[in-house]
Please model this.
Amino acid sequence: MDIPNSINAASNSHVLNLSSQGTEVVLGNIIAPEILAIPIAPSPINMFGPRGACLLSPTGPLWVSDTGHHRLLGWRNLPTADSQPADWVIGQPDFYHEGQNAKGTPGKASFSVPTGICACGAGLAVADAWNHRVLIWHNVPVDSHVPADLVLGQVNFTDNEPNRGSQEADANTMHWPYGVFYHQGQLFIADTGNRRVLIWQQLPTENGQSADLVLGQPNMTSRNENGGGSATAASMRWCHDIAVWGDDLVVADAGNNRVMIWEGIPIENNTPCAVVLGQKSFDCVEMNQGVYFPHASSLSMPYGVGVADDLLVVADTANSRLLGWRRRELLLLNGVAADVVVGQRDFTSKGENRDFGLPKRDSLNWCYGVQVCGGTAVIADSGNNRVLLWGMR
Model:
């Protein structure tokens, strides 16, 4: 029996509490049944493959990484209508232009594939992936074209070489950083191309400041996939997003088709995680555990993680669904089954928009990011070129 809104759990299906009518608000252009294709040209409405979004308070503002258009879009208040146009843009001269670094050179307000975005103290942090840097605003921007105050990964705002031109990584370099997260004074960056997570114990104050800790590599200069060997409890292949669940650190390791969970927040380099979701053991890495169809304990390229009270929400990207796990002692075991699924009819279904058809208000297509703020789940539904604001009952 299908459960309305594609939420299916043996019990406690109320945990995620998403509206039974699907998302309340769709940001981006909505495809009508009679239209075969829509333009992805930039506008205050159109987005192209957005990979991250951040709602700064339950009433706004909202900032979205419009990844394919190489810009941020901002809404002053929480949008209340479908296809509501953005109020602000950063990264392009206006709403109707696109191009990496606005078809120029990098600067304090330009982007090349912006992805992860998060509140950072009183400000905002954005992973500017293909400029191999993270930009930080000390205060949340409330206008267009606001320049960033600080850059990490590069010595200045104009350089953009991976690892500053070196074949090795270092504590102050990055290669394709895709994820950013801030928690109780600590800054975490998924330095994806270097297959590691960098941690600053305090919010950086200088451009190019070195990280204090590294996870996923034995030291600050190594950058091999899974440390140059098979996957372990300490290694990573394609880390993409970060969250803190209760007091525990969570990392989406998309390349190993798993989510890594530490007991607490590590204080030493290369600390192994305590448990993984999506795999039966630390050395297993196959998509959906080696079979085509998923199930309640498998993952396929999970790119996003978010937290809603005691629930861990995972964007199981290649399965075009969200999975949710409740906190319980059972999570001390690897590969624990999820409690809830959103975007598919049940735990064993997959496919973009469920039936490979047009987007629906309760369907997903390669969802890359998920964040929960107050009563709203913000979902970067990248394959549908939209962001969903899904109310929680």
Observations:
- Residues 1-15 have pLDDT under 50 and may be disordered.
